[in-house]
Amino acid sequence: MKVQLCLIVLLAVAFTACKSKKNLAKSSANSVSTIENMQYDAYRNKLPGTQVERVDKNGIRVTFDSEILFPTNSSYLTDKAKEDIKNLVDVIRKQGPVKIVIEGHSDKTGTPEYNKWLSDKRAVSVKALAVALGLNGDNISTVGYGDTKPVADNRTPEGRAKNRRVELIITPVS
């Protein structure tokens, strides 16, 4: 009888403990998603006119149209671009430490070599300004894809404009 009573008590304790851990895990997951939603909303609210979307598990992609960022065939940032990037840096600094990959893209109007070079230079320009505004350059990498990852048809002026872009993939540092 004592053995049966002990087994019942042990099972009750184990069942309750499992249920508590499950509830704790649920509330932890909810608070993480709440934090992620707040971060996502911060980017969307502070960067009007910029495309902001979720990527992977907890990353955010911010896409700037290169027509806004750079004059044609240039990697020099416009004054409007500098203002937009400053706003982005302000949001990033409030979110805590992050890793950033800056991706440069181009349309197909130049040679593949030129497009790769230009997209590299544009990504580096954005990084240089972000670092000058206070972000840690060690947590920022750049890559130029040239014309290899189009998001629109390169046969139309509108499509080419959409393909000339800079994307930042922002993920929290664990």
From TrEMBL:
Keywords: Cell outer membrane, Membrane. Residues 57-174 form the OmpA-like domain. CDD domains: OmpA_C-like. SUPFAM superfamilies: OmpA-like. Pfam families: OmpA. It is found in: Cell outer membrane. The keyword Membrane applies. InterPro entries: Bact_OuterMem_StrucFunc, OMP_bac, OmpA-like, OmpA-like_sf. One of its GO terms (cellular component) is cell outer membrane. This is OmpA family protein.
